[in-house]
Design brief:
Distance between the termini: 53 Å
CATH class of the largest domain: Alpha Beta
Structural class: alpha/beta
Helix content: 25-40%
Largest sheet: 7 strands, parallel
Shape: globular
Order of helices and strands: EHEHHEHEHEEHEEHEEHEHEHEHH
CATH topology of the largest domain: Rossmann fold
Oligomer: single chain
Number of domains: 2
Strand order of the largest sheet: 3-2-1-4-5-7-11
CATH superfamily of the largest domain: NAD(P)-binding Rossmann-like Domain
Number of strands: 13
Bound molecules: NADP nicotinamide-adenine-dinucleotide phosphate
Strand content: 15-25%
Radius of gyration: 21 Å
Length: 369
């Protein structure tokens, strides 16, 4: 397998990693080294086998998959010596996507998994460059590493000096990205991808896990939270998962990407008004949130049960108030001519997302169309 291209991937059991895997296996020259940790009840091999079955891998495709058991919170990911040897001999590209993505994650967990895990990834990448064949390290950051709690236009090739964070997820991704940038400045070849809020496929709405923004939508759809502290004209930056994967892979192929960061976001985020309109038109039976300007919103006006839910949702609310906006100059320049275009995230796309979530029984709507 000497003419194969070895690709080391973390986070493949997650929303994004799974779709990266689905795409990367299509190229016959790709040999995939996949980091998987033991689950609560199942061994890494069982987890990987289940995924490959779900993704419909052929026997030939399975030949191009190498399971690496490990945990990013451990030095060297806790890899076996022979697995590290294989990476040294065969890995050319490394995508680090594993992270704790819960917006209400504790400071300790976010730092241990996101900051610590990325430091371990950088150490491995440096070793693979120094002693092996690694040519590029790609890090999945987030557009919200810039901190979503202040009015700010975020540029791709820098982070704000004085960010204001909504949660420990954001602050840990800021710290991680800072460390990745330092490693690039010290000579590690690589690039950074910053998606906004990743949602389902642009054409089907399909997504493997309803996380990040979906639980939030569910609380409103099911009438468990009735008041939304935002403005109808505010927008929220969502991005279909297929665009994130295609854009990241297209940009990774361009050697000029090294040392740069790329916002993988929509350039035309939908407004709250559009979301509510689509919901009313397509699902009149779905509960309607009452939109209240953040300055007029009073937590005390909520029922005690709603206050509890509202407190849980606090880390999410900034994403509905578009204080943070994103420059896309690098991404636009690098996607030009690749055939990958910025996504349309209009009313029709919102319809597609809602239809999929309803079809899967995630959103249960009385008298849906
Ligand atoms: N989803 C979004 O909206 C979004 C937006 C912007 C940026 N991003 C970034 O994109 C990347 C992928 O996000 P995602 O949404 O795919 O995340 P996700 O669905 O939450 O999946 C996280 C992945 O990381 C793995 N992981 C977590 N802790 C680990 C550990 N200690 N050792 C090994 N693996 C570990 C998980 O494995 P287990 O299955 O074992 O838990 C899983 O495969 C992250 O860096 C995230 O910050 C995501």
């Amino acid at each position: 397998m000497n003419d194969m291209r070895g690709i080391f991937l973390t986070g493949i059991t997650g929303t994004l990693g799974r779709e990266m895997l689905r795409e990367l296996i299509q190229t016959p020259e790709n040999l995939l080294f996949l980091l998987v940790r033991a689950g609560n009840r199942s061994a890494p091999g069982v987890r990987l086998e289940k995924m490959m079955s779900e993704l419909g891998f052929s026997a030939a495709q399975r030949q191009r998959v190498v399971l690496l058991e490990g945990d990013i919170t451990q030095a060297g990911f806790g890899l076996k010596a022979e697995d590290l040897q294989r990476l040294l001999a065969e890995a050319h590209v490394f995508y680090h996507a594993a992270a704790l993505t819960q917006l209400n994650g504790s400071r300790e967990d976010c730092e241990r998994i996101n900051v610590g895990g990325t430091l371990h990834a950088l150490e491995i990448a440096k070793k693979l460059v120094r002693e092996g064949r690694l040519a590029r390290f790609f890090y999945f950051s987030t557009a919200y590493a810039a901190g979503s709690r202040q009015k700010y236009c975020s540029f791709e090739d820098r982070l704000p000096e004085h960010p204001v964070f909504a949660n420990f997820y954001e602050s840990s991704k800021y710290a991680s990205e800072t460390n990745v940038r330092k490693a690039f400045a010290a000579g590690l070849p690589g690039a950074i991808f910053r998606p906004s809020i990743v949602v389902g496929h642009s054409e089907t709405g399909e997504v493997s896990q309803f996380n990040v923004i979906y639980p939030f939508m569910r609380l409103f759809a099911h009438g468990m939270l009735r008041i939304l502290p935002t403005r109808l004209e505010n927008s929220f930056n969502i991005v279909p998962i297929d665009f994130v994967v295609k854009a990241a892979l297209a940009i990774s192929e361009n050697p000029a990407c090294l040392g740069k960061a790329f916002h993988l976001v929509t350039q035309t985020p939908p407004t709250i008004e559009t979301l509510i309109r689509v919901k009313k038109e397509d699902y009149p039976g779905m509960a309607d949130p009452l939109v209240v300007a953040p300055a007029d919103f009073r937590r005390e006006d909520l029922e005690p049960a709603e206050q509890f839910i509202y407190d849980m949702l606090q880390p999410y609310l900034g994403y509905l108030n578009d204080d943070l906006t994103f420059d896309t100059a690098n991404t636009a320049a690098f996607l030009a001519g690749t055939g990958v275009e910025f996504p349309k995230t209009d009313a029709d796309f919102l319809r597609t997302l809602l239809r999929y979530a309803v079809g899967q029984g995630y959103l249960v709507i009385p008298s849906s169309k």
